[in-house]
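Forgive a beginner's question, but might I ask you for the amino acids of a protein and the tokens describing how it folds?
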Amino acid sequence: MFDRDVDYPTAVASYDDEGVDAAIDWCCEHMEDGDTLTVWTSLKSNLRNCSQLEQLVNRHSNVKHVTGRGGGFVHGKGPVLMAWADMDDIGKLVRHGGHGIRALCVITWNEDAIRPWVSAVRPTVLGDGSAWEGSTPELDPVVVEAMKSLTLTVNHNNTISAGFEKDMVVSALLALHDAGIRMDGEAMQGWALANGWSGKNPKYLAKYVEDINAGKRPRCSRVLRADYIDTLRRRAVEGE
């Protein structure tokens, strides 16, 4: 019912002339008749940091500039080019314009800020790809099964910071922790973004994991079945 798979093409580009040019070309290749290419930056003034993007916005009527501070709304359908975004930014953009995104390309500024997302999404690499040749975070298969279940049962139109959604998420995370299963908050945030979570929920998820790993126990009223972890382990084995 609440499945929100990310089914559009994704790419990540290095912040250099080669990477930016390749990012623009990639987005243009994914445009269809009547589409708008949306260029996203955190602030309006950020556009001046890159002459290629500034010229792209100023010279073409079917290219629109939106800012994260202005809400980051995607107007119409088409590819989105995010310049210097982090995972929180991606979550907010998808929340406000997910149905209009035909393709998504992110130009990096700090590779570590989006590494978990890149690891989960496996986007096309444009420009200098050396930053992605190193190790990437991997999730325990049992954690992945828990995340799959939450993705299908949580109403993603609601926040996971309160109510039923919080109970669902926190109870699952506490059960994983109590079973001694390792959780990586940033890697789980990246997985969530790759699998349709949006808005602030991926960020809240990472914060819950951070708090639980630090010994805190966020309050929740849901009691899970005694075989919850065993069921996840069985599913993980069956999925291998």
User: Anything to note?
Assistant: Residues 163-178 form the longest helix (16 residues).
